[in-house]
Design goal:
Blueprint lengths: L1 H11 L2 H75 L7 H10 L11 H8 L9 H36 L3 E2 L16 E2 L2 H5 L2 H38 L11
Antiparallel strand pairs: 1-2
Amino acid sequence: MILRRLTQSLKEQNWTAIVIEFVLLVCGVFLGIEAQQWNNDRADRQLERVYLQRILSDINISIDTDVLNITRLAGNSDREFLVVDSLRQCSLAEARRDDFAHGLSDLGKVGNSVFVLSTVDEMLSAGKFSIIHNPKIRDTLNGLARDAKYQNNIFNAINTQNGAATTTTNTRVLRINADHRSPLDPVRWNELDIDFDALCKDRQFQSAVSTLKYLTDAGISLNNRALSSLRAAKAELEQELGLAPKTGAEK
Protein backbone atom coordinates (compact mmCIF):
# COMPACT_ATOMS: atom_id res chain seq x y z
CA MET A 1 0.00 0.00 0.00
CA ILE A 2 2.68 2.48 1.03
CA LEU A 3 4.93 1.37 -1.82
CA ARG A 4 2.10 1.91 -4.28
CA ARG A 5 1.47 5.42 -2.98
CA LEU A 6 5.20 6.16 -2.99
CA THR A 7 5.48 5.05 -6.61
CA GLN A 8 2.51 7.24 -7.57
CA SER A 9 3.99 10.23 -5.74
CA LEU A 10 7.30 9.75 -7.55
CA LYS A 11 5.49 9.84 -10.89
CA GLU A 12 3.70 13.00 -9.84
CA GLN A 13 6.89 14.42 -8.29
CA ASN A 14 4.96 15.19 -5.11
CA TRP A 15 8.03 15.59 -2.90
CA THR A 16 6.19 16.26 0.34
CA ALA A 17 4.18 13.08 -0.03
CA ILE A 18 7.31 11.20 -1.07
CA VAL A 19 9.13 12.20 2.13
CA ILE A 20 6.17 11.35 4.35
CA GLU A 21 5.56 7.98 2.73
CA PHE A 22 9.28 7.14 2.76
CA VAL A 23 9.46 7.92 6.48
CA LEU A 24 6.37 5.77 7.07
CA LEU A 25 7.94 2.94 5.06
CA VAL A 26 11.20 3.09 7.05
CA CYS A 27 9.32 3.27 10.35
CA GLY A 28 7.19 0.30 9.36
CA VAL A 29 10.22 -1.79 8.49
CA PHE A 30 11.97 -0.73 11.71
CA LEU A 31 8.92 -1.54 13.87
CA GLY A 32 8.56 -4.88 12.12
CA ILE A 33 12.19 -5.75 12.82
CA GLU A 34 11.83 -4.63 16.44
CA ALA A 35 8.67 -6.70 16.89
CA GLN A 36 10.39 -9.77 15.45
CA GLN A 37 13.42 -9.19 17.68
CA TRP A 38 11.14 -8.82 20.71
CA ASN A 39 9.43 -12.09 19.84
CA ASN A 40 12.81 -13.81 19.38
CA ASP A 41 14.08 -12.44 22.70
CA ARG A 42 10.90 -13.57 24.45
CA ALA A 43 11.25 -17.07 22.98
CA ASP A 44 14.91 -17.16 24.01
CA ARG A 45 14.06 -16.16 27.58
CA GLN A 46 11.41 -18.88 27.78
CA LEU A 47 13.84 -21.46 26.40
CA GLU A 48 16.56 -20.21 28.76
CA ARG A 49 14.25 -20.74 31.75
CA VAL A 50 13.48 -24.30 30.62
CA TYR A 51 17.20 -25.03 30.32
CA LEU A 52 18.02 -23.47 33.70
CA GLN A 53 15.28 -25.49 35.39
CA ARG A 54 16.70 -28.67 33.86
CA ILE A 55 20.22 -27.71 34.96
CA LEU A 56 18.91 -27.08 38.49
CA SER A 57 17.35 -30.55 38.47
CA ASP A 58 20.70 -32.04 37.35
CA ILE A 59 22.47 -30.20 40.16
CA ASN A 60 19.97 -31.46 42.76
CA ILE A 61 20.61 -35.04 41.61
CA SER A 62 24.36 -34.42 41.88
CA ILE A 63 24.02 -32.97 45.39
CA ASP A 64 21.87 -35.86 46.64
CA THR A 65 24.31 -38.43 45.23
CA ASP A 66 27.39 -36.72 46.67
CA VAL A 67 25.73 -36.44 50.11
CA LEU A 68 25.11 -40.20 50.02
CA ASN A 69 28.72 -40.75 48.93
CA ILE A 70 30.05 -38.68 51.84
CA THR A 71 27.84 -40.49 54.37
CA ARG A 72 28.88 -43.92 53.09
CA LEU A 73 32.57 -43.06 52.79
CA ALA A 74 32.62 -41.53 56.29
CA GLY A 75 31.32 -44.83 57.69
CA ASN A 76 33.93 -46.71 55.66
CA SER A 77 36.69 -44.44 56.96
CA ASP A 78 35.67 -44.98 60.60
CA ARG A 79 35.66 -48.76 60.17
CA GLU A 80 38.96 -48.69 58.26
CA PHE A 81 40.49 -46.76 61.15
CA LEU A 82 39.26 -49.48 63.48
CA VAL A 83 40.98 -52.08 61.28
CA VAL A 84 44.26 -50.15 61.17
CA ASP A 85 44.25 -49.37 64.90
CA SER A 86 43.24 -52.89 65.96
CA LEU A 87 45.98 -54.49 63.86
CA ARG A 88 48.57 -51.99 65.05
CA GLN A 89 47.76 -52.77 68.68
CA CYS A 90 47.05 -56.44 67.89
CA SER A 91 43.93 -56.19 70.01
CA LEU A 92 40.24 -56.39 69.09
CA ALA A 93 37.35 -56.35 71.55
CA GLU A 94 34.75 -59.01 70.85
CA ALA A 95 32.04 -56.33 70.69
CA ARG A 96 33.87 -54.69 67.75
CA ARG A 97 34.43 -57.83 65.69
CA ASP A 98 31.49 -57.23 63.37
CA ASP A 99 32.62 -53.61 62.79
CA PHE A 100 36.13 -54.90 62.06
CA ALA A 101 34.75 -57.42 59.55
CA HIS A 102 32.58 -54.76 57.95
CA GLY A 103 35.64 -52.53 57.67
CA LEU A 104 37.59 -55.28 55.91
CA SER A 105 34.72 -55.85 53.47
CA ASP A 106 34.57 -52.11 52.63
CA LEU A 107 38.23 -51.87 51.70
CA GLY A 108 38.65 -50.45 48.21
CA LYS A 109 35.15 -49.01 47.86
CA VAL A 110 35.45 -45.50 46.44
CA GLY A 111 32.61 -43.13 45.54
CA ASN A 112 33.54 -40.72 42.76
CA SER A 113 32.10 -37.23 43.05
CA VAL A 114 29.07 -36.83 40.79
CA PHE A 115 28.51 -33.86 38.50
CA VAL A 116 25.42 -34.37 36.32
CA LEU A 117 26.07 -32.00 33.41
CA SER A 118 23.96 -33.62 30.71
CA THR A 119 21.86 -30.49 30.08
CA VAL A 120 24.95 -28.26 29.87
CA ASP A 121 26.55 -30.72 27.43
CA GLU A 122 23.35 -30.72 25.37
CA MET A 123 23.33 -26.91 25.22
CA LEU A 124 26.96 -26.80 24.16
CA SER A 125 26.38 -29.41 21.44
CA ALA A 126 23.36 -27.48 20.13
CA GLY A 127 25.13 -24.11 20.29
CA LYS A 128 22.60 -22.90 22.86
CA PHE A 129 24.88 -22.15 25.82
CA SER A 130 25.02 -18.44 24.91
CA ILE A 131 21.25 -18.26 25.43
CA ILE A 132 22.05 -17.92 29.15
CA HIS A 133 22.16 -14.13 29.35
CA ASN A 134 23.63 -13.86 32.87
CA PRO A 135 27.45 -14.07 32.52
CA LYS A 136 27.82 -15.05 36.20
CA ILE A 137 25.65 -18.13 35.63
CA ARG A 138 27.66 -19.06 32.55
CA ASP A 139 30.92 -18.69 34.51
CA THR A 140 29.55 -20.84 37.35
CA LEU A 141 28.49 -23.63 34.98
CA ASN A 142 31.84 -23.49 33.20
CA GLY A 143 33.49 -23.76 36.62
CA LEU A 144 31.47 -26.89 37.43
CA ALA A 145 32.55 -28.44 34.13
CA ARG A 146 36.21 -27.68 34.89
CA ASP A 147 35.89 -29.08 38.43
CA ALA A 148 34.21 -32.24 37.10
CA LYS A 149 37.08 -32.80 34.65
CA TYR A 150 39.69 -32.13 37.35
CA GLN A 151 38.04 -34.50 39.82
CA ASN A 152 37.67 -37.20 37.17
CA ASN A 153 41.45 -37.07 36.64
CA ILE A 154 42.08 -37.23 40.39
CA PHE A 155 39.71 -40.17 40.86
CA ASN A 156 41.40 -42.02 38.01
CA ALA A 157 44.64 -41.76 39.98
CA ILE A 158 42.86 -42.77 43.21
CA ASN A 159 41.31 -45.82 41.55
CA THR A 160 44.72 -46.87 40.20
CA GLN A 161 46.27 -46.73 43.69
CA ASN A 162 43.15 -48.36 45.10
CA GLY A 163 43.50 -51.30 42.73
CA ALA A 164 47.12 -51.83 43.69
CA ALA A 165 46.34 -51.81 47.43
CA THR A 166 43.32 -54.11 47.21
CA THR A 167 45.44 -56.65 45.32
CA THR A 168 47.22 -57.12 48.64
CA THR A 169 44.20 -57.04 50.96
CA ASN A 170 41.94 -59.29 48.90
CA THR A 171 44.35 -62.22 49.10
CA ARG A 172 44.33 -62.13 52.93
CA VAL A 173 40.57 -61.97 53.47
CA LEU A 174 38.06 -64.60 52.36
CA ARG A 175 34.30 -64.06 52.54
CA ILE A 176 32.29 -67.20 53.35
CA ASN A 177 28.62 -68.18 53.80
CA ALA A 178 27.35 -64.89 52.33
CA ASP A 179 25.89 -65.84 48.96
CA HIS A 180 22.39 -64.94 50.12
CA ARG A 181 23.36 -61.42 51.27
CA SER A 182 23.31 -58.18 49.32
CA PRO A 183 26.68 -56.49 48.65
CA LEU A 184 25.31 -53.47 50.54
CA ASP A 185 24.57 -55.44 53.71
CA PRO A 186 27.10 -55.16 56.55
CA VAL A 187 29.44 -58.13 56.83
CA ARG A 188 29.71 -59.97 60.14
CA TRP A 189 32.75 -61.53 61.76
CA ASN A 190 31.53 -65.09 61.18
CA GLU A 191 31.17 -64.41 57.44
CA LEU A 192 34.92 -63.90 56.96
CA ASP A 193 37.76 -66.38 57.08
CA ILE A 194 40.67 -64.42 58.54
CA ASP A 195 43.60 -65.06 60.82
CA PHE A 196 43.67 -61.98 63.07
CA ASP A 197 46.98 -62.88 64.74
CA ALA A 198 48.65 -63.37 61.36
CA LEU A 199 47.32 -60.03 60.09
CA CYS A 200 48.76 -58.33 63.19
CA LYS A 201 52.20 -59.39 62.02
CA ASP A 202 51.59 -58.66 58.34
CA ARG A 203 53.07 -55.19 57.77
CA GLN A 204 52.35 -55.30 54.05
CA PHE A 205 48.66 -55.88 54.73
CA GLN A 206 48.54 -53.10 57.30
CA SER A 207 50.29 -50.73 54.93
CA ALA A 208 47.73 -51.54 52.22
CA VAL A 209 44.82 -50.94 54.61
CA SER A 210 46.35 -47.64 55.70
CA THR A 211 46.67 -46.61 52.05
CA LEU A 212 43.05 -47.51 51.38
CA LYS A 213 41.90 -45.44 54.35
CA TYR A 214 43.89 -42.48 53.01
CA LEU A 215 42.22 -42.92 49.61
CA THR A 216 38.79 -43.12 51.26
CA ASP A 217 39.48 -39.85 53.11
CA ALA A 218 40.65 -38.27 49.84
CA GLY A 219 37.35 -39.33 48.29
CA ILE A 220 35.44 -37.69 51.15
CA SER A 221 37.40 -34.46 50.66
CA LEU A 222 36.72 -34.41 46.91
CA ASN A 223 33.02 -35.13 47.40
CA ASN A 224 32.83 -32.28 49.92
CA ARG A 225 34.54 -29.96 47.44
CA ALA A 226 32.07 -30.99 44.74
CA LEU A 227 29.17 -30.51 47.15
CA SER A 228 30.31 -26.98 48.01
CA SER A 229 30.54 -25.98 44.33
CA LEU A 230 27.20 -27.58 43.47
CA ARG A 231 25.39 -25.92 46.37
CA ALA A 232 26.78 -22.52 45.38
CA ALA A 233 25.64 -23.11 41.79
CA LYS A 234 22.21 -24.19 43.04
CA ALA A 235 21.83 -20.99 45.05
CA GLU A 236 22.73 -18.86 42.01
CA LEU A 237 20.28 -20.72 39.76
CA GLU A 238 17.47 -20.46 42.30
CA GLN A 239 18.15 -16.74 42.56
CA GLU A 240 18.11 -16.40 38.76
CA LEU A 241 14.85 -18.35 38.49
CA GLY A 242 13.21 -16.47 41.34
CA LEU A 243 13.05 -19.60 43.48
CA ALA A 244 15.34 -18.46 46.30
CA PRO A 245 13.61 -18.19 49.69
CA LYS A 246 12.94 -14.61 50.73
CA THR A 247 14.79 -13.14 53.68
CA GLY A 248 12.97 -11.47 56.57
CA ALA A 249 13.59 -8.02 55.09
CA GLU A 250 12.11 -9.05 51.71
CA LYS A 251 8.90 -10.57 53.12
